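note to self: dont lose this again. the chain is below, predicted strucutre after it. 526 aa total, dont forget to put it in the shared folder this time
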Amino acid sequence: MGVYVQSRIIAERIEPEAWQALYAQTLDFLNRCSLDLMGLGRVKGRTGDRRVYTRAIEQHADEPARRHWHVVGDFESFETGESFLLYADIGHYRRGEAAAAPEDVLQAVLVDAGSSGNVFNDKTQGHPYHFAMLAVAMLIEDRFPLYAFTSGDIDRAQAEAAREMLRETLGVDVALPLCVESGRLLERIGHYVQGQAVLERFDLIFRGERSELFRVAPPQDLQAWLAAELGRYQTPSQLGVTRLAIDWLNADQDLETLCRVACLDAAGPRFDPVGLAEMLASTWVTVPEEARAALSPFQRPAGAQDTVATQLGMALLDMRGLSGRRTRRCIPRAEVLALLARLFPEQAERIRETLEQSDAKITANLETVRTPVQDLDRRSHEQRDAGDGRSFLFFETADDLDESQRTPFKWFAYTAWRLLSTMAVEVPLSIDWTPTEVKNNIERICREHGITLTEDAWTWVEAEQDQSLLNMLLAFAAMNEHEQRFWNMRRALFERRPLALALLAASRDEAVRAEVEEMLALRQGQ
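---
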């Protein structure tokens, strides 16, 4: 699971000079865009190389074959994902002779829509730099429309936002990616395959709601495609059938056609009509919109990128039978029942009972979750910390901590007190260490434990002379703990000197220690 941005090219058909000009344009964009982008590099440290987060995103600028930029996140959010690199030398991407390369990148995509991108195909995890990487991919495709292709976990609204970033930063207008323009994509696929195969390839390549396929597909091909898709499932209760029906309904397609293909047509799966009625209920198409509103906080705003958390959350909601939250269309139950009674008169009564009982159960369940969902939504907006410690990366003063931060802060302060209290016993040599020696050990342990800090963090650590503060940083760096909240709070200690100072002060506060020990006693008593 992950949130990707992909850029594929036919490198053999791109001229080196044109690619170098494109590289320069992307570098200019990344350096000037509104995001304070974060690179990943190596610098010489006290005891060896340090791996650091840096604003200097270009590396090896004086070595043509190795020159590239490298982006992993941004400094404003402190969110990082996977590495995105772009090389200035097109030779880095070439794998064969131009004569053997496809004349259209779409020919390669049609053969393998999921192939790894040979420029990048990496996870932004939906972090803010997602839009910058999408903008870069769009620049490449706009410059080389036959030889470059953009894809990933994107949609049209995201592409429009990325295009606006390019317009504001560089003053250029670029085309939207082929993968989000349904009409253009359908036409271009039609150059290489025909009939139902066009829809099959479109469904694999298009980035957006599948309902768009139903709006643009030729009617003569759409019904055969729908029958084939439904035929992949054994029963109408399977999640894939529900999702297909939701997409069909969201495209304002004819419900009667869906029912006929699903149950009556020889080319279809011949589903049981009562089972079909139960599936239609699971789409919530007959559930009143005011009842559906109970889950409205889970609706993703248009243009918002997915994150791993939202992907997982949406998958869990689907598994719990809540796919109907995706349905935008509402049809009166009486109208649906009349249609089903006309198509399946012998089972009309069972269908009516099934649909009415399912609707009643769904409506009742939605009402029971309305208050908890509203409370969850309220807390998500009111509480600064989501339980992962990330909010401490933006620490300013201990006086400003809210309820979600106060307890973990005190626990961390208590841990600092214990570490510093036992340090002289467990590491006797530490008594005689100078600040310089402590800094050397901090660097060495960060390297051994894979702790990457920003250049800003190293700047203040290098200048620090407070022995106790340095000892605390060293002790936390040495802890071989991988729990997410600990990892984030430890990183925040290095990135925010005011947090480190406040935590050190709290570790010396007897009242803080007493409160934590009381919580420990209560926990042990349970």
